[in-house]
User: What shape does this take?
Amino acid sequence: MFNPFQSPNQRNVIAVECGANALRLLQLGGNAMNPVVQGIAMLPAVGLNSQQAGSDETTIRRIKEALRSGGFSGRTCALSLPAKSILTESIEIPALANNEMKESVSWTAVDRLGVDRTEVVAGHLPIRAGTLGGAPSEVLVVATLRNTVNRTAALLTEAGLEPCKAELGALAAMRLAWNEIKTTTHIPNFAFLHLESDQATLALLNNSGLIFHRSFSWESSSNLNLGAIPVAGEEDESQAWRWRQMAEEILQCLRHIERRAVGSWPEFVTLSGALAEEPGVASAIRTVCGTETRLINIENSVDWSKVKRPSGPLSAWTSLVAIALPQTTVAAVNKKRRVA
Assistant: This one.
């Protein structure tokens, strides 16, 4: 049985993103100082989720063809999971030893998902450390139904791959952004926004790690303002009104964090994910939140010269790059940039 979230860090895995509307594959080669994209493929209209994943001969055939023609080698793969399929919730619990913390997190996930414990796989990230017998710890619970991952893993296995681990794509992208920021700048706080087709993930981070996390469904403001007229100007500005509702949600989160910890307002918001470069997103956030936006830069994270660049925005591949990069590679690349 495939056991996600609990496997060693491996090099040269084939990263597979199981999006709602497309399947993406990416593999890195090269060395720790110079990671190179050696294999890349995208299968439009192939969405792998808990309802769809199963024995689908057409999908299996398309994956096999992509593996043959995309420059991939080996069979080991790692899954990037969409935010909609994962429970993420910040909770406060008494400061506990590591084994007791894992136990408490596991039971919290069982309670939230409402299923038997054997059906759940869970982990956690620290947000605020507590003290034994004193202040509680705040942690981010990350959990999913085991079958949600196993069904997708079974289909990939039929296509000839060997899944070794699974990770929430938004958190993988967040890790890449955090590693980049903490090793190249001295920014006190920054926000991270990962935009998928039906879910937004917002996080606030500093040099020590995660301060705040929230995943929420978003809707285009155009659904609520049918009579709205775009303003004249650049395309990004003229489309900003479509994203105002989401920007207001982000503003409420930032205000909540600032009330809880004065001085934590972010210097900027880093944008990531398939919709990060959609016209209007950056303008809406700047206008509503009064905060600078930056697009995550994976242009220089890895060498893209050996493959045909994928169509569409590179930010859509952030999670795959993050999962394909072993952490030792991330550290080495960032160290090289700092020296340069």
